[in-house]
Amino acid sequence: MAADSRKGYTLERFPSVRRLTVDAGWIVSRRHNVHGLFEIDVTEARRIIKELRAATSESISFTGFMVYCIARAAGAAPHIHACRDWLGRLAVFHDVNVNTMISAEIDGNLTVVPLIIRAADKKSVKQVSDEIRAAQESHKSGRGGPEAKYISRFVTLPSALRRLFYRWLYRKPALLHDMFGTVAVTAIGMFAGGGGWGIPFGNHTLSVALGGVARKPAVVGDDIIIREYLSVTITIDHDIVDGAPAARFVRELRESVESASGLSEL
C-alpha cells in the first residue's frame, strides 16, 4: 500500500482473484443473454428449516435448499443448461453440475470463490447443504477447496492466455461441465436485508441470482396473510435456450420451492 498525500488517494494492490470478474465480463460480452425476474413464496421452506434447526442438530443451508431445487428443475428441463461443442452441436447433459459461490480468504482478502456441486440433481438437500458447509469450513481452516487451488495459479496468467483457455474450454462440453459447471447460482441476498433483485453476469447457459427475502401480503384462499417472497433472477443464453424450456424450468423451480421439496425427508 502506498499513500500519496499530494494526489489525495491511496494505492492498493489489485486482488488477483478479481481478474475472474474481469474475465466474466469478457465472456458475457460475447453472449446474447435474456433476464427474467420472479418472486417465489419461500414461507413454508424457511419455516421448516427454522424448525429443524430448533428441534434437531440439523443445520440446513437455505442456499443449499435452493441449489437442490434449481438442480432438480434444470434436470427436468435439461436443454436449459445445454452448451455447444466446436461443431455447433448441442450437448445436453445427464447430470446438473452447479457452480455456486462461497466466501473465502485469498491473499488476505475476503472474497468469493466458486464451488462446483457435481450431480446436484441426484443429491438430497442435506447432501448439498453439507457440501457447501464443508467447503466453507475448509476455507476458514486455510485448506481451501479443489477449485481454489487452481484458481490461485490461474489468475496469475496473462489475460490473453486466460481468454485463449476460455475459448478452448467453451467448445469442450465434458470439460466445461466438470470444471466450470453449466448452471451458476449466486446468493446475493446474504449481503443486504429485504427484497431486491440482482442481475448476474450470465457466463453460464443458465445463471440464477437469489436476491433478498421480503414479507408481503398475499391472497391465500379468501384471506390476506403475510408471506415471505424470495426475489429470483434467471439469466439464460438465448443463443442456446428458447422461451419454452425457460418457462418449464421456472414452473418446475417455483413448484419445487413453494412445496418445500426435499425438506420433508429430513
Write the layout of secondary structure elements.
Elements: E1 2-4, E2 9-11, H1 19-28, E3 33-41, H2 43-55, H3 62-76, E4 83-84, E5 90-91, E6 98-106, E7 109-117, H4 125-140, H5 146-154, H6 159-169, H7 173-179, E8 183-187, E9 206-220, E10 223-237, H8 243-258
Parallel strand pairs: 6-8, 8-9
Antiparallel strand pairs: 1-2, 3-10, 4-5, 6-7, 9-10
Helix pairs in contact: 1-6, 3-4, 3-8
Question: What does it look like?
Answer:
- The protein is an alpha+beta fold.
- The chain has one domain (about 20-265): Chloramphenicol acetyltransferase-like domain (Chloramphenicol Acetyltransferase), CATH 3.30.559.10.
- Helix content is about 35%, strand content about 25%.
- It has 8 helices and 10 strands.
- The chain has helices at about 20-30, 45-55, 60-75, 125-140, 145-155, 160-170, 175-180, 245-260, and strands at about 1-5, 10, 35-40, 85, 90, 100-105, 110-115, 185, 205-220, 225-235.
- The strands form 3 sheets. The protein has a 6-stranded mixed sheet with strand order 3-10-9-8-6-7. A two-stranded antiparallel ribbon has the order 1-2.
- Helix 1 packs across helix 6, helix 3 (about 60-75) crosses helix 4 (about 125-140) and helix 3 (about 60-75) packs across helix 8 (about 245-260).
- The longest helix is centred in the middle third of the chain and has 16 residues, at about 125-140.
- The mean pLDDT is about 85.
